[in-house]
Structures are given as structure tokens and as C-alpha cells.
Model the fold of this input.
Amino acid sequence: HALDNIDGSYDDIVLLQPTSPLRQAEDIDNCVKLRQERNASACVTVCKTEKSPYWMFQIDGHGRMTPFLEKDGPWHQRQNLPLAYAANGAVYVADVEWYRENQTFYGPDTVAHIMPPERSVDVDTELDLMLVETIMKANKRIY
Done:
């Protein structure tokens, strides 16, 4: 809607969700720069997750667990699992024409800008808000 109603010609569309109050200007700049440098259709922010999807399960109606993902390696210890990253909702950048055509920020050549966990809190619950407030109080000079 905004692309159709704002005058001007733009190379990138940037989405900044209000539920990511700890992102910094450098995260936005880095996403725009990374998308352009890599000639990618889009760039999204992610953070390393401590909870690997290889250690996640589904539970059926009888309480039985089945792995969410099949383990295709000898990963009996958490430390040996492949690193996993989760979208953190802080910054989304896409080429305007590609976005118009696909209506998403995710595609085969979407690149990731990795953010540290202390800036990756996505406020969805009261607990998330308490965590953000604690981080902001501890880092008064930054926020």
C-alpha cells in the first residue's frame, strides 16, 4: 500500500517492526548495505538460537514425541549440532520490484544480517517486555 501511495522512486523497501525496540541504526544500515553488496533480493535480521530445531519435538494426541526434524548426522551432543539462526523481526529489507512481485522478504537468495542476542528481543509477551526494560536499564548509554 505504501509503495503505491508514496511519491518517488525507491530501490529498497525497509520494514521495521515496533516490537524490536533494541535494534540500532547500524543494523538497518548493515541490512541495506548487505543486500546491495551481495546483489540479493532481500536481507533479514537473524540471531543465533540456543534452542536447536534438531532437539525439538512434536507431541501427538497420545503424548508421544517425534523429532521435529530428522537428524542427518551423528549429533548426540548439543555442542555438535549445526548452528541454527532464527529471524528476530528487527529489520527486513528488499528490492522494491522483487518485493512487489513476491510479496515477501524470504526467497532463495535472501541474505542474513546476524544480530547479537541482546538486540534481538522481539516483544511478544509481558516477559519479553520485562527483558527489554532490563536490558535498556543496564545499557542506559546505548538506548
